[in-house]
Write a structure and sequence with these properties.
The protein is globular, with a radius of gyration of 17 Å. The two termini are 12 Å apart. The chain is of the alpha+beta class. The strands form two sheets. Strands 1-2-5 form a three-stranded mixed sheet, with helices on one face. A hairpin with a 5-residue loop joins strand 1 (4-5) and strand 2 (11-15). It has seven helices and five strands. The chain has one domain (4-137): 3-Layer(aba) Sandwich (Rossmann fold). Helix content is 45%, strand content 14%.
């Protein structure tokens, strides 16, 4: 799912999200948010807490990748039906997942409030911060 070179050599990320936002969180931040819940004591007993560092569109993710990689990265929005036929293992499952997140963005993003997550983990990273630390590990496929 990382950036891939297109026929013209330009990098692109491709997701069936249209112009909708996708919640994201760094894996290392999830545990710290969980610790924040435990530190709150009884306040979160019986509650579901979704965490996200921020909600970004594919175009916003591509812009952040462009900045950190120093190469243009475009966002290709494709229909879920096309994504499901990409032929890699799990493509159809990912297409369904992204379609749900796209079609029910208000509900999906609403359950993952970055302000709540930041109250639990004040050091919660943004996508740009995460990229700044991990850009060199992002595989660039041709």
């Amino acid at each position: 799912m990382g950036p891939k070179k297109g026929p013209d050599g330009t990098l692109a990320i491709t997701m069936p999200m249209g112009d909708k936002k996708l919640p994201g969180v760094a894996v290392n931040d999830i545990g710290t948010c969980a610790l924040g819940i435990f530190k709150k004591g009884r306040e979160y007993i019986g509650k579901t807490v979704g965490v996200a560092g921020e909600h970004l569109t594919g175009a916003e993710m591509a812009a952040a990748l462009t900045k950190v990689l120093g190469r243009e990265v475009r966002y290709n929005a494709v229909p879920p039906e096309a994504y499901a036929k990409f032929g890699f293992p799990g493509a159809d499952d990912l297409a369904n997942m992204f379609q749900f997140k796209r079609d029910f963005q208000t509900v999906f993003c609403g359950a993952r409030n970055p302000e709540v997550a930041r109250s639990l983990n004040p050091a919660l990273q943004t996508f740009a911060q995460w990229l700044g630390q991990h850009a060199s590990r992002i595989p660039i496929e041709s």
